[in-house]
Protein 1
Amino acid sequence: MFNSLSDRLTATFKNLRGKGRLTEADVDGTVREIRRALLDADVAVPVVREFTGRVRERALGEEVSAALNPGQQIVKIVNEELIEILGGETRRIRLAKTGPTVIMLAGLQGAGKTTLAGKLSKYLKAQGHSPMLVACDLQRPNAVTQLQIVGQRAGVPVFAPHPGATSTELDHPAGDPVSVARAGVEEARRTLHDVVIVDTAGRTGVDADMMEQARQIRQAIVPNEVLFVIDSMIGQDAVNTALAFDEGVNFTGIVLSKLDGDARGGAALSVASVTGKPVMFASTGEGLDDFELFHPDRMASRILDLGDVLTLIEQAEKSWDKDEAARMAQKFADQEDFTLDDFLAQMQQIRNMGSMKKMLMMMPGAQNIRQQLEQFDEREIDRVEAIVRSMTPHERVAPKIINGSRRARIARGSGVHVSEVNGLLERFAQAQKMMKKMAAGGGMPGLPGMPGMGGGGARKGAKSAPKKKARSGNPAKAAQEAKDAEARRAAGPKAQPTGAAFGQQGADFDPSQLNLPKGFDKFLGGSK
């Protein structure tokens, strides 16, 4: 969604790199490029004007002129201002103290309300709640059926006393949506569901009848939250639509749908700032699990290509099999052989985390390798699994016995070429050597500067730490060295970069600097 904006901003900040002092002309040039990038991204003009004004004011202030690295300080300022226009802080659902928490969804037709109702219900169910969906969209043909299907996939009950409109009776929907909404809340209270999600009707455009119906539903059920679902791809019109809905139903939060699209993303940066209402959730795909809590600070980091490692860690913790991880850790500690069964188990763990492309794009500096990531083949893990499952149990434990005839049999069984079997076995051999070296305390091969991963002590033949430099025999030179050492001690330890400054170092990360093994991109499923 924000690829174009991210590219423009990253290129702008590269021009500031290495400058020890920024002039007013440098700041004006940077602010001008930021303004162009935001306007190209379809951000609302008032938001752009306010944003760039604050950035320029702060950039010309004391915090930049006195900074050790003015370029990184500018990135920090832009990061903080982005967080501000995105809402400032993470906003979660406010649960009712007594009775069920009522959540009403509103928005235009096609924004994705019905699908999002299922995503939100599954998200809340995973947190220990007992949600129920209420079908109040009785005007769009088969909307009730769609919600029932979505609810079934999410494992959540749906209250739908009326089938709604059919293709032959568009102007005469079955049932009153206000009565259905009221009855749905009562049914949830009777059946002890603690969350009620009410899916309302939408239109292809804002009109008086639509707003009046939504207003009546709001008055009938008195919801704890009214979430405005907006299509992130509609551009400048998002602001006018959001203002109309805010005036009509006074929504309490915003949900961005279709955030995985290829539009410029201006809606996401404009709506929260213009309406003053927080963005609470984001829909990032078509699956029911492609749904996440919206964190303004993390989204700002993604836009500036500083990465979103916290979200990546949360996804890993949510999907990672702790028993399998403990088993592998024990096996690693015991220095047992890493087998193809273990290799397959690790690949399945990675697949359970979701799309590899999305995960890798959360790493700092991912925009530098976006082209390679776009060529990434998600089906590579499936091919690896097919190859390994075509082996006998003994072959998985002792892959050295796999000769030419066995390789041909495995290739036929998995539907691949023999060369792919050969490539997998070569990559596995490299992984096996890496595991042995890490278990022996030798660090990760191919990653220079990576310390040993504990255990095993020093490797045989490893070089000892460099000795302390001897003092010079020249009295004058020795005195100067002692003076320099005293000055370094007085200055104290060098300050470490934090916040956006640390992120900018991540944005400067170039994967080619890593001495990765040849063919590593193919191991990740790259283009063949």
Protein 2
Amino acid sequence: MDGPRTKVELFAAIRRDSRTEKLSIHELSRRYGVHRRLVREALTSPWPAPRKPMPPRPSVIDPYKPLIDAILRADLDAPRKQRHTAKRVFDRLVDEQGMDNVSYGRVRDYIRRRKPEIWVEEGRGPPSVFIPQTHRPGEEAEVDFGDVYITLDGVRTLCYLFVFRLSFSGKAVHHVSASQGQEAFFEGHVHAFQVLGGIPRGKVRYDNLTSAVARVLGFTRARVETDRWTAFRSWAGLDAFYCQPGIDGAHEKGGVEGEVGRFRRNHLVPVPDVTTLAELNARIDEWDRQDDQRRIGERPRTVGEYFAIERPLLQPLPEDHFETGRLLTPRVDRYAQITVRQNHYSVPVRLIGRQVRVLLHASEVVVYDGRTEVARHERLVTRGGSRLDLDHYLEGLLRKPGALPGATALDQARAAGKFTPVHDAWWEAASRAHGDAAGTRALIEVLLLHRHMSHDHVVAGIAAALRAGALTSDAVALEARLAAERETPAEAGPDTALGRIASPVVSLTARRLAALPPDPRPLPSVAAYDQLLRHTRPSAGRPPSQGSPLP
């Protein structure tokens, strides 16, 4: 059997043998091979005495410590941007004291440890301390933005993650947008309100971001807010609390600061590869629902269970609508484009020279002519880019068909998959048959079919017309309608000796009636008119006839 391995076990063995076998100190010392002083110590206490600390060894920096402390104390009253760095202290010791046997690392480590101690010794402030907080349900929330990179349609793109986090339950709502401007700030709030089903009744903590704060007034909590943010707060009933600028303000809303990093590490690694931001936000909504099952720290319940307590205590959503988009009124240039945030977007050519209304949202641009929507584009995240819709230029290309082969809108349509290889094959065949100008005009007439027919049906019609050698827009339209009819179930025809056959003729009246909702009204009655009928008197002994003629 192995002997005791630790000093505590050795003491226990000595005390056991002394108690059970009544061995002397000399015998115990010989049995365990230790000095008699150690045996006496074991019999006195079951715990070994703590080892005496080693005396501090002298260091080469010891002669310079008083000088360094004096420099750090002098910095207490110096301007913040003109205080000594560790490198400057090291250089002064070398130049003024001739120090040549101390490395920069030793000086830096001593300053890092000694500087906060001097601040406390001089009464300039206690050491950094964090005070635990208790949050009441339905009362408080925190808001922040975070940078995220995604692969958007094959391009690595910087986007912005909006986070709205309830302080009591830890329930957080996330939304990615192409910018962190005021429109994204508002849309993130509206999305969070809809997901949460209400609005916090107490304070919501914010950074001093320019979407809400126009100016910080000194070192106070007072802020000059932007007009649209004031209107939005009034609409939603929000009570804003603005944190201190800098790192101290980040500590005042540490919950959402940590939530940004947690969500980014757990759900956005590896970098998401999506086609549109709407696709990514749909994934994020699902991830938020899954996160309801997680526990924060040592809490006994999940986020979803705490949120079930908090949700009924939120104040209800406003009944009216608040327009989150920013209204702009650019003028359409001669290229049928408008400029929004240094990017170019196309509109129909009929609007050239006119002023239009634009609602700039976080992820899309919507263009109105009066109250009619005339264009909708996904917002560009770069500067100096262009997003052109080929459909907007078709009327102009009918007059200038030679401009189509080199049109930028055509290249973008090909890249987006809207102008397919089937279009190119039909265009080439029509140009060979009718000439370049006439063939291009025929193609433009085919492209106009996309305005009132499905893209897939038109492509199917182009392919069918190309196989048949019918290189006119009318043939493509006919084949596209046939493709649409094949996807629509045919109405049953009359019964014949060969069975029920499908009718080749489509009844427009039957189609319209089929689209109408069912009529719950009762059938009409003519009972009231029966009172106007005059019946002959029945003869004696004969029952009255039900079909007696009128006199």
